[in-house]
# Entry
Amino acid sequence: MLTKRKEAVLKAIVNGYIDTVSPVGSQIIAGNQGLSVSPATIRMEMAALEEDGYITRPHTSAGGIPTDKGYRHYVERLAERRDLAPREKENIQRQLRRTYLDQEELARLAATALPKLTGSLALITAPKATQLRLKRLDLVPVQELLVMLLLILQGTKIIRHLVPLPEPVSQQELIRMGNKLSDVFEGVTSAELDVTYTELTPLEEEIVDLARDLMKAEERLSYEELFFDGLSELFDQPEFSEAEILRAVLEILERRGYLRSIVEEVYTGPGVQVSIGGELQEASMRHFSLVIAEYGVAGHVTGVVGVLGPKRMDYGRNIPAVQFLSNLMSQVVGEVYQ
# Structure
């Protein structure tokens, strides 16, 4: 347990490092933080903080740099939360409420707005239904022995899958099959597709079995596709002048499913959750922190909103920004399900 004075020194180091991206020395702490102690006393406290793993220093006379442990203590106990300005909130509310009928566009707009507030990369998923229901099924010819199965789900989600045929089937027959299966199974869940219907041909049974498997696979995904925006804001951060960190960002973004898998592994809810450096358990993520929160309507739809930035990110600003977007998007999505 840190003493009040050690916490004051740690807070000064983290705040100073966030502002300057440079090690914070005892003279700076004594001069700028209002601590009524000498630089020598501050150096003693810094040595203790280093020994306990809260900061690191290249050598004993150098300034301090927060470690993951130091950032964690800062986030949980010391960061001063700064809410968004009323005008910022009004601008975002105006943008997002225009799109409540298009949930994918809602996610895209939120992803555009968040980097301007945080200086970090926005990561947002569109709302995902907690239980998928079939709205319509269509079969579209691609080649003589190949058709495209289109599963149109309630909430405008579409699943596409190529299906090989054992023998040619006319376009008229494919249309008839699609209409028949749509009439029989409209509004059903994947579990309800397990029910056996005797008035189906072998090919129709195969299509229904495939539709069930595709819906179940979709349901196993925690969230929809991840939208991200804000690369220019992220690359404005001083850390990204270093080639190693820049390569890490590009590697992360090239693997499109990678970020979503990290979000799914990290988020345990409820509320805003912060994961710092090594807590993300991926070597390529050790330079970053992730601030995320879930949004949606319990029992209907859920999504995730968050930011990815350097460990030196402004937590006092970013955490309230993510919380505000989470609350606002829950309200907007909730209006659709009232």
